[in-house]
Design a protein that fits this description.
heterotrimer, A mainly alpha (134), B alpha+beta (639), C alpha/beta (176), A: 134 residues, mainly alpha, Helicase, Ruva Protein, domain 3, 0% strand, C: 176 residues, alpha/beta, 36% helix, CcmH/CycL/Ccl2/NrfF_N (chain A), heme (chain A)
Chain lengths: 134, 639, 176
């Protein structure tokens, strides 16, 4: 499954890009002292896309940039910023691409309509199988 | 030499596939018995030759024959033998060969084992199977020869990605492939039945064991893949709604729906067109999923070069097979007499509801997976992931659980609403009590986890009710199968809900000797020591975890591989009766502290235990069905 | 009944899917993640200097009437070294270039400038990628074109190639 993806990815990806000599930031990989804030940060991180891995949220990526973004989210949560505000700040920088939870918009309404439409089509199809009641 | 032998076997198998198709056409046209006999033998021989080719590929990988290009690109002589062998299918060409080998073997097995289906339908089925195989043989021979040589041969290979050097993963792709390709049999049966307009109970009974078999492997493959991602990726997640996972989930959803509709067709001769459609869709999803993953158009930014020739080739094959089958469906299914219709409140009605909900989930997953692609076509970049899938598919899945609890308690043909409600008393009570109990004991744990746990309790009770009041020794094996599989869903759902509700996470940087509290455990990093593996070196943390009087040692590692140069984190997981302690060693912070990621995940193992139960239920059903068929066949002979 | 025509719907649906996939395969969508700030004012950022004798980046620096390039780079990034000659040529052509050094150290940047040349008027240090995020940048190297009023005109993702230098210089010079 995911293995196959990684396989594809890593067969071709030779590590040509070096990495920073600086150690990763403290908040990239360690939690906030306040459990409630950490839970809020975690919830937000799970819905933000890692920009350099693209198939993962920043909550479960080992990429350095994902770590930096986790640190950013934790700092802002610790500073008392609302999750929605942090998300919109990132969206205003990177577009909807950075959020795994796209807002209802002109580009996404067919997506959000699809489940309901499918359900209605399904019910219409299934009716054929049932005996008519008089 | 071995490589050339493999190539010859592949060419011969391709030729036999064409012959098999021609014989199928001849048998259909003329009804000659020689053609029928011939087609069975050719089908078996084709499967064997494909296996020979696969065996040759495994042999060159095992011998690290560095004159074969594929070995150079995907293997290394210093790799453990298990991963050398697994390397044979851990790449594009090898996995396509494995795919077509299973396809050939499945066709051969149908030819040998199937005695119930009308001969003309069987001929059409084997002809369709041969046509599919021929296309993939052509793809291998023209665009993806796995046996191509490299001259001059390099001294050593490039290696296999260390993440994939894991026993679980070595066998994960073959398991999933058996499931995917096993569905090809259902597809060919459907095409065969459409050609001869022979859709009915006999067709359903003939198809059912194959669907069951493929479904068991798919279930195992998905379960194992989920567990692999869980312990290998090191962030505690077990399902990511990643396109590659979705590609394996879609055929499973279709096959699950098919499994239930085929029962309606076999028992009540209803849902004819729908069952044929699902049989086509299930294998189509396998092919589309594999194509999407293999072509790399969905997966990643890391420029997996989409070779346009290969992509176009496979897309053309998909167009011919799936398009052809759907066109045949449109042309023919109108002439297939409509099956029986049902009362709304009946077992059949329940199964229709099951099919409806499963298909809607399938549609949601498909649309959600492809939507970013469509949006990109219009110049919009967006991401669709867990939040969308959970919101859209979650409620429907919970409705499905309710349907699943009630369905087996409803009689075939017609039932009385009062009676069904009476049957549902205990399950409803179980759901309400467990839900209320949870709120009292654990507080508010969130709507979805609460519903998940309550419904899983209800489903668990409901799924064993069909056994109540029966003589258990005389209960048919396939009833046991259904009970166990439904129970498996309840168990798995409980695991998912527990993971969502009760997991505790600690991400900390500690000096050796500082205890960290995670859930009921106190975890202390005692020391860090270097370790050496067969083809890696690494650092191993020694963690001591204590809960009450219970003390245990965990050893998570950081591994450094040389070929290709990569660092991986090896999680250390301790499984206990009531959950798992999951630990990962991170980097040092340069001031004497080490990063640790610790999770206490109560009851999380139920997720995969449930998956295993589901597969076990499938296996019991399969055994039960096959045994009953055997007895029926024997009775016929005696009569 | 129009039931027979409905039977062609699955095929139609499948063909739509094939078209989607075929288009995606032959015209792979641009997967570069671009900054959504293009067309908007440069955020007011303040960055400490990273090498002695060269200013960092103070807020308001970009709204002083001179269009310029802002190059996001790092000494540990290989394409950044490959890009250096192009930046030197731009500098020689009179294009002012400021830089943001991502997650870097003074010593490493000094070595980098000594080895590959120094086209920069100012270098600000971004030790935690914070400014990178503020600009909507997703990697190194990237170059933002900023006009004299401090508005981001465009973003160049990846290293600037030799054949892009002239056009880029002309573009910056044409800006108000």
């Amino acid at each position: 499954m995911r293995g196959a993806a990684l396989l594809l990815l890593l067969i071709v990806a030779t590590p040509a890009v070096a990495n920073t000599p600086l150690p990763s930031q403290r908040l990239a990989n360690t939690e906030l002292p306040d459990p409630a804030q950490e839970a809020r940060a975690r919830g937000l991180m799970e819905t933000l896309r890692c920009l350099v891995c693209q198939g993962q949220s920043i909550a479960d990526s080992d990429a350095a940039m994902a770590g930096d973004m986790r640190a950013l989210v934790r700092q802002r949560v610790a500073a008392g910023e609302e999750s929605g505000a942090i998300r919109s700040w990132l969206v205003s920088r990177y577009g909807d691409y950075v959020s795994y939870d796209p807002p209802l918009s002109r580009a996404t309404w067919p997506l959000y309509l699809a489940p309901i439409a499918l359900l209605l089509i399904g019910v219409a199809l299934a009716r054929v199988s049932f005996r008519r009641r008089r | 030499m071995i490589a050339e032998a493999g190539l010859v076997a592949l060419w011969l198998a391709a030729a036999l596939a064409l012959l098999q198709f021609a014989l199928g056409a001849l048998a259909l046209r003329t009804g000659r018995e020689e053609a029928m006999l011939g087609i069975r033998r050719v089908a078996v021989a084709q499967g064997l030759l494909a296996s020979v080719a696969m065996a040759c590929l495994i042999a060159v990988f095992a011998a690290s024959d560095m004159s074969v290009k594929l070995v150079v690109e995907n293997s290394h002589s210093a790799k453990p033998m298990l991963y050398k062998i697994a390397g044979a299918w851990g790449n594009h060409e090898g996995s396509m060969l494995l795919w077509v080998t299973i396809l050939g073997l499945a066709g051969g097995a149908v030819a040998m084992l199937e005695h119930r289906l009308e001969e003309r339908t069987l001929a059409a089925t084997l002809g369709a199977q041969a046509l599919i195989a021929a296309g993939f043989y052509a793809f291998l021979l023209i665009a993806s020869n796995p046996f191509a040589r490299l001259w001059p041969a390099p001294a050593d290979g490039l290696g296999l990605n260390p993440l994939l050097q894991d026993p679980g993963l070595a066998f994960h792709p073959p398991t999933l492939y058996i499931g995917y390709v096993g569905l090809s049999v259902a597809f060919s049966f459907a095409v065969g039945a459409l050609v001869t307009r022979d859709v009915g109970a006999v067709f359903a009974k003939a198809m059912r064991p194959w669907v069951l078999g493929a479904w068991i492997f798919l279930t195992l493959g998905i379960t194992a893949g989920s567990y692999w991602a869980y312990y290998e990726l090191g962030w505690g997640g077990w399902w990511f709604w990643d396109p590659v996972e979705n590609a394996s989930l879609m055929p499973w959803l279709a096959a699950t729906a098919l499994l239930h509709s085929v029962t309606v067709l076999a028992t009540r001769d209803g849902l004819r067109a729908w069952t044929v459609m699902l049989a086509v869709v299930a294998f189509s999803m396998s092919m589309i999923g594999t194509f999407l993953v293999r072509s790399g158009i969905l997966t990643s930014v890391h420029a997996f070069a989409v070779d346009p020739t290969r992509g176009a080739f496979i897309l053309a094959l998909l167009l011919i097979y799936i398009g052809g089958a759907l066109a045949l469906f449109a042309l023919r299914v109108g002439t297939v007499r409509q099956g029986t219709t049902f009362e709304l409140l009946s077992r059949e009605g329940g199964l229709v509801l099951n099919n409806l909900l499963l298909t809607v989930i399938l549609g949601i997953v498909l649309i959600g997976t492809l939507y970013p692609l469509v949006a990109a076509g219009f110049g919009v970049q967006l991401s669709i992931g867990a939040p969308f899938f959970n919101k859209a598919a979650g409620p429907i899945a919970l409705a499905l659980v309710i349907a699943m609890a009630a369905g087996p308690l409803i009689r075939w043909r017609r039932d009385d609403g009062q009676a069904v409600l009476a049957q549902l008393t205990y399950p409803t009570a179980a759901a309400c009590f467990s839900g209320a109990g949870l709120v009292v004991l654990a507080g508010w744990i969130g709507l979805l986890p609460l519903l998940g746990l309550a419904l899983s309790a209800g489903l668990a009770v409901a799924s064993v009710l069909p056994l109540v009041g029966r003589n258990l020794r005389r209960t048919p094996m396939f009833t046991w199968g259904m009970v166990v599989a439904h129970l498996g869903i309840a168990v798995s759902l409980a695991g998912m809900a527990c993971d969502a509700a009760f997991t505790t996470e600690r991400l900390v940087a500690v000096r050796p000797g500082e205890p960290v509290r995670v859930g009921p455990f106190s975890v202390t990093l005692v020391g860090i020591a270097p370790v050496l593996g067969e083809n890696w070196s690494g650092l191993e943390g020694r963690l001591i975890a204590t809960r009450d009087d219970d003390t245990m040692v965990l050893r998570p590692q950081q591994r450094f591989f040389a070929n290709p140069p990569t660092t991986t984190s090896e999680t250390a997981i301790r499984t206990m009766l009531d959950g798992q302690l999951y630990t990962v060693l991170g980097a040092a912070d340069g001031q004497g502290r080490w990063q640790l990621r610790l999770w206490w995940k109560p009851w999380v193992t139920l997720i995969w235990l449930g998956g295993a139960l589901i597969a076990l239920g499938g296996a019991l059903s399969l055994i039960g069905r096959v045994a009953r068929d055997r007895r029926a066949a024997l009775r016929e002979i005696w009569a | 009944m129009s039931n027979n025509r409905l039977l062609w719907l699955p095929l139609a649906g499948f063909l739509v899917l094939v078209v989607i996939v075929a288009v995606a395969m032959w015209r792979p969508a641009d997967r570069t993640v671009r900054s959504a700030l293009v067309g908007h004012p440069m955020p007011a950022v303040a960055l400490q200097p990273i090498v002695p004798g060269k200013p960092g980046i103070e807020p308001g620096r970009f709204a002083r009437g001179r269009p310029r390039l802002v190059n996001i780079f790092a000494s540990w990034c290989i394409p950044c070294a490959a890009e250096a000659p192009q930046l030197l040529r731009l500098k020689a052509m009179g294009v002012p270039i400021d830089a943001i050094a991502v997650k870097d150290t003074t010593g490493a940047v000094q070595d980098f400038l000594a080895r590959y040349g120094d086209p920069y008027d100012a270098i600000g240090s971004d030790p935690a990628s914070a400014v990178q995020f503020a600009l909507g940048s997703s990697g190194v190297p990237e170059t933002f074109i900023v006009d004299g009023e401090g508005k981001i005109i465009d973003q160049h993702v990846g290293d600037i190639r030799a054949d892009e230098v002239d056009a880029l210089a002309a573009r910056v010079k044409a800006l108000p």
